[in-house]
Amino acid sequence: MARRKKELRIGVGTVKETLDRVKSVWKRAERGERITPEHRLVFSTLPQLLKELSPARWALLEALRTKGKMTIYALAKHLDRDYKNVHTDVVRLIELGLIEKTKDNKVFVPWDVISAELKLAA
Description:
By secondary structure, the protein is an alpha/beta fold. It has 5 helices and 5 strands, in the order βαβααααβββ. It has helices at 15-30, 46-52, 55-67, 72-79, 83-96, and strands at residues 7-12, 39-43, 100-101, 107-108, 113-117. α4 packs across α5 (83-96). Helices cover 48% and strands 16% of the residues. The chain has one domain (7-117): Orthogonal Bundle (Arc Repressor Mutant, subunit A), CATH 1.10.10.10. The chain is globular.
């Protein structure tokens, strides 16, 4: 059987929207419906999303996804960036759940797909 792609959906939304989505899934589960797990990362504003996923951090994610597991030092060298700045970015991306760390201190992107959905307010 083929492995399903692991996807993280990123977006902008309110706490109310997130709670409404959780409530909807909860009710479906109570009715016995089959629930497919979703992985989401929701920011309260577009400027916050853009701050957390800066071009440098996105390049870091792309490098890890392409090259695979590596140490922060090797990643900084690969990106031709200062180790301290890469370390700061890695720590934050771990906090956000965008990358993970192995027991031997290598970092990697656990997602096959990271997709973003941005809606203009009506």
